[in-house]
Structure formats: C-alpha cells, structure tokens
Amino acid sequence: PPSFKRDVEAAVKLLPAEESLLLRQLSVFTGTFSLDAAIAVCCPQQQQFAAMELLASLVSKSLVAVDAGGATRRYRLLDTTKHYCRPLLQASGEWTPVSQRYADYFSGRVAELAGHAGQDDVAVQIEPDLPNWRAALDWYLAGGQAAEAAALAALACPLLLQHSQLVECSRWAQAALPHLPPALAGSPLEMRLQRALGQSLM
Q1: 3-state DSSP helix/strand/coil percent for the chain, to nearest 5?
Q2: pTM across the whole model
C-alpha cells in the first residue's frame, strides 16, 4: 500500500548511515538469509559483534523481520522494504561488489554442503537458501562469469538430485550448459552436468 511505502521511506531516511547502508545491502538477498550470510555479504570489513548490533537495530525498528520457524534463526526484508531499498542499492556504486560477494558466498556454501553430501542435515540447509542459490547462478550468467556458473551448477546438481529436487536440477543444468566456456568442453565438469541433466529428466 502507498501509505506503508511512505512509512518505510520515512523510517529509512531516519536511519544512521551504517544502518542505512546495511539495509540497502540486505536487499540483495532473495527470500530469507542467515546471520552468517548477512555478515559475510554486507559487513565483510566489520567486527562480527558490531554487525550483529546493526542487524538487531534494524529488527527492532521492524525493517528486518525474524523467521524463527526453522532449524535456525533466519532474517528477511518485507517486500515493501526490499522494493524500496533494492533500487537504491542498484543506483549506487554498491550493487556490483555486493552482488559479487553474494554470489561468491553462496557458491562457497554450495561447495561446503557438497563436501558433506551424505549427512542428514544437508537437505534442511538446502531448502531455505535455494532462492539465493538460484540468484547467485543468475548473477554469474548475467555477468558473463560462465566458468563460475558452471562450477556452481556442477556442485549444486548432485545435491539437488540426491534430495529429489529433479525439476530444480534440470533447470540448473539447462541454464549452465549452453554457456559452458570452450575450455570446459568435454571436461569432467561438463560430464557431471550432462549426467545430472539426464538423471533429472528420467
């Protein structure tokens, strides 16, 4: 509603500079995010405790919501807040470095989970961050980072298959394969993607 948008705009304008910067940068996330993700992506130069205090202040002002319904506490921006803040982030010089950190962080998380693929809690960790995984892949592809996109997809697809995410696995493989760099043609990485695609379509 227009009135709610005006309320968000007024609240954001009253924020101290550090909180305003953090709120803008949090709009890069898709869906919910963990505390660790927020700190790594948005506060890489800050002490962890200081970053936690900034986030807690935004929560206290109802600009960031807490989702405590899962296995771990997660955070999210309300749609109205995100729709106000993301254009501000995109119009600033912050959009590209923040988005790159975002994609690299979730690529690292996928690699970490791939290294523990057999553990029972992996599925619980995949589901909440899947929207962010997708956005990371899209960032790599849109930015011409085809090798990074292929590497991310090759790690994610086996995880998705293992946890019965067949449609999602197919989407990832079909997104990455057409952009595969010539240097990776015929490589084990391409074979993993082709194999995952075939299995997801069976």
Answers
A1: 70, 5, 25
A2: 0.91
